Amino acid sequence: MMDNTILTPPASVTGTSDVYSSIQKINEEVKQNSSWIAPLKYELSKVIIGQHHLIDQLLIGLLSGGHILLEGLPGLAKTLAVKTLAKAIQTDFKRIQFTPDMLPADIVGTQIYNPQQTTFEVKKGPIFASLILADEINRAPAKVQSALLEAMQEKQVTIGDTSFKLPDLFLVLATQNPIEQEGTYPLPEAQIDRFMLKVVVGYPTREEERKILEGFDQTDSEILVTPVASPENILSARTVVNRIYMDDKIKDYIVSLVYATRDPQSYQLDLRDYIETGASPRATISLKTVSRCLAFMAGRGYVTPDDVKAAVVDVMRHRLRISYEAEAEGISSEDIIRKILDTVPVP
Fold this sequence. Notes:
The protein is α/β, with parallel strands linked by helices. It has 2 domains: 16-35 and 244-343, Helicase, Ruva Protein, domain 3 (Orthogonal Bundle), CATH 1.10.8; 37-210, 3-Layer(aba) Sandwich (Rossmann fold), CATH 3.40.50. 44% of the residues lie in helices and 14% in strands. It has helices at residues 17-33, 37-47, 52-64, 78-88, 105-108, 142-154, 189-192, 206-215, 231-241, 248-262, 281-297, 305-316, 324-328, 333-343; strands spanning 68-71, 93-97, 109-114, 119-124, 131-135, 156-159, 162-165, 171-176, 197-200, 275-277, 321-322. A hairpin with a 4-residue loop joins β3 and β4 (119-124).
């Protein structure tokens, strides 16, 4: 369970009495608006064994409104996690299975002619839900991918001559299967960049696998998920997250981490042969947002360097384009990010 005591910020973020007073006020707001975090994690843990990192990233997506790209093998509870989350926060959930023969209208909807009224009526697609699981997004052709990504970016859908606003609480989780390449249309780097986080979902541990085996006799109906939050709670929490204090030194640290991917030599990093394209400004913005969400989930009204470090890999792993030399030497974007973390001075 999360400790809801008001935490005292370290001296490095309390430059003046006004700042200190402001942080204390934000601490109190965080305490009042984050009371649903621990119960929500508990409800999810009743159904999902392990996958703590996935659950934390789902909560970050809720708090930030940022979309998530999930990469993992089948059967790792990605769909179950989103479905359970929807029940626990009392909102609607839609799963879209992407296939090579899909059309954009299969996602956003279309106009249907009504012969009795001699008019066209709008039939909305599955995108009009709060939580969307876009399963195997790389199986759909470019037009379908673009239709989904446009809805994610604009938070609205145009059908015919009419634009329809998507729900205020709108979160897309798109999955990719990392082992199958036949019959797939990989997302271009520019489109992947629109996802705030890329989360790699791994296998459970041996102990967790044993617990899964024990619980397999139960049916879904036997595992009751109690609603512990509402969309209103989450939207209120978002306003508090946006006010969480971030010191100028933390902001400089975020910029340094991102800039090191573009000009590693300025930080005495010998990575020029391994990085083709550095992280975009979206990475800077996402690092700020995700760090604040982590502070909120920890019950703090201020961001620490550890929050930034915890956010970096998931925020930047899909925004670095590594070279053929790096692939040939078995160096991944995660390896490069960790080397940058080890080198850039921490405030």
